[in-house]
Design a protein that fits this description.
This protein is mainly alpha-helical and 495 residues long. Helices cover 66% and strands 1% of the residues. It is built from 20 helices and two strands. It has a two-stranded antiparallel sheet with strand order 1-2. A hairpin with a 2-residue loop joins β1 and β2. The radius of gyration is 22 Å and the shape is globular.
Length: 495
């Protein structure tokens, strides 16, 4: 990868990101001062230490910065998220919650990757600064992954993301200016949508603090709540339907929103709803809600498990199905008591996720679509060996290299899932907990299944080794696996 001079850009940007994180720590400190809580000291100490490291990195790497190559972009992406999680954990470790650094790092990584898995019990008694910090981490992580998915991953040809390039250019040196320009546009849109969500929550009955924090974690599809019982603590149909709307909004491609807002025409709006992955996402949401609703009704008729009346069953099905599909991870009821069919549905939904270029996680809708198209083409080729079959996606011809990269990505996704699940089992976790924890981590969903980490549980009782492994899984899933795994190959460091 060249001499040490070529790393200047990487470390300079990491320093800049840490400086922004240090400034962000001041916001929860102010919240504590306003409410008379003493946890503000931990945030100021953390901000000072983080700021010191940030300034050191900036000053020692300032000057003429070399262009950011593809190899450096891989390195920068991985190191930035690790560094941010490591320093974001400090206020959590210094708080009166008395978290170990392992628990603090797990919580910080869960926040930044918008996973939503938590080790904190008694959120209602937690300092306001901690609740706000958790929400801010997810909010920052949400906008961070949008910018990464739109500007960096397509140029690096990661997992089929090359389908979403915004311009016909393979020049990785354009990553920095492209990212800066997109960050500004997306940031403004992100703030507007978050503000609209907060206002809707407030009108629906939340307090100002709850509306603000939940708006940030909803638009980030993160799932951190200010209550141990998540949305069940509010027990409000209005609040849940607001959440459903904005979870869906956050799971659609933000670049599609930008295209409409920059040039609002009827053709742009029609193109938005004719996009293959957007149509598939809406269809899948509707199918999941109807299926789970019908299942509950039939279960009640048969005298088995169910949830409330017909209207309440629809509400619970809609909220929890949307939450798990989008990777948000909010819960409004203990759906693990609905029966085996529902548990299997939620387990499968946790893998899928939303659209590319959104804050949602998982495999992404477009990869699932292309996997089926590739499989169907293979079946046709078996039937007609001399035939020539092509794959089109959104009206464009899909080349074999892109199809193969998506197939490889999905293979790596499930291979990693199996590997983490096996290691967790060897650590003593029972099978359901191990499987669902692995899926929840790499798909960045948050809650798993079972009594330990299910809808009403937390990850606090898991051994420390499991927490570090799951934190690594969260990072791998959020950064599309290949971004991190490519750095483990010797060839990467010889480039």
């Amino acid at each position: 990868m060249g001499n040490s001079h070529s790393y200047k850009t990487v470390f300079f940007i990491i320093g800049t990101m840490l400086a922004a994180l240090a400034v962000g720590m001041i916001i929860p400190a102010i919240a504590d001062v306003a409410t008379g809580d003493e946890d503000w000291r931990g945030f100021l100490v953390s901000a000072a230490f983080t700021g010191f490291i940030a300034v050191a990195l900036i000053l020692t790497n300032r000057g003429d910065l070399p262009p950011l190559s593809a190899a450096h972009a891989f390195l920068l992406t991985g190191l930035t998220w690790i560094a941010l999680a490591a320093f974001a954990a400090l206020p959590l470790a210094f708080s009166r919650l008395d978290l170990s650094y392992t628990n603090a790092f797990f919580e910080a990584m869960s926040g930044l990757t918008t996973t939503g898995a938590t080790v904190i019990i008694g959120l209602e008694e937690a300092p306001p600064s901690i609740l706000l910090w958790r929400a801010l981490l997810q909010w920052f992580g949400g906008i961070g992954i949008i910018v990464t998915a739109i500007s960096v991953l397509p140029l690096l040809n990661v997992g089929g993301m090359q389908l979403f390039r915004l311009e016909n250019s393979d020049t990785s040196e354009k990553i920095l200016p492209r990212t800066a320009q997109l960050a500004g546009s997306i940031g403004r849109l992100y703030v507007i949508i978050t503000g609209a969500c907060a206002c809707a929550y407030f009108v629906a009955g939340m307090s100002v603090f709850d509306a603000t924090t939940h708006a940030m974690t909803t638009i980030a599809t993160g799932g951190f709540s200010t209550h141990d019982d998540s949305f069940a603590a509010f027990d409000s149909a209005a609040i849940e339907y607001v959440a459903i709307i904005f979870m869906i909004v956050a799971s659609l491609p933000f670049v599609a929103y930008l295209q409409i807002t920059n040039n609002f025409t009827r053709e742009k709006v029609r193109g938005f709803f004719e996009d293959a992955q957007i149509r598939m996402f809406f269809a899948l949401v509707a199918l999941c809600i109807i299926t789970l609703w019908a299942y509950q009704i039939m279960a009640q008729v048969g005298g088995a498990s169910g949830e409330g009346s017909g209207g309440e069953s629809l509400r619970y099905a809609a909220f929890n199905a949307t939450s798990i599909l989008t990777g948000t991870g909010y819960v409004s009821t203990n759906y693990s008591t609905w029966g085996g069919f529902a548990i299997i549905c939620f387990f499968l939904l946790s893998f899928i996720g939303g659209c590319a270029g959104s804050t949602a996680c998982g495999l992404k809708i477009f990869r699932v679509q292309i996997l089926f198209k590739t499989g169907w083409r293979y079946v046709r080729q078996l039937s007609f060996p001399n035939g020539v079959f092509i794959i089109r996606y959104n009206g464009r011809l899909l080349d074999d290299a892109t199809a193969n990269s998506i197939t490889a990505f999905i293979f790596i996704f499930f291979l990693t899932f199996a590997f983490i699940a096996v290691i967790l089992s060897l650590m003593g976790l029972e099978p359901l907990t191990a499987l669902s924890a692995s899926a929840a981590a790499i798909a960045n969903v948050g809650p798993g299944l079972g009594e330990v980490i299910g809808p009403t549980g937390t990850y606090t009782s898991l051994p420390d080794g499991a927490k570090w492994l799951l934190a690594a899984g969260m990072l791998l899933g959020r950064l599309e696996f290949l971004t991190i795994l490519v750095m483990l190959t010797p060839e990467f460091w010889r480039r």
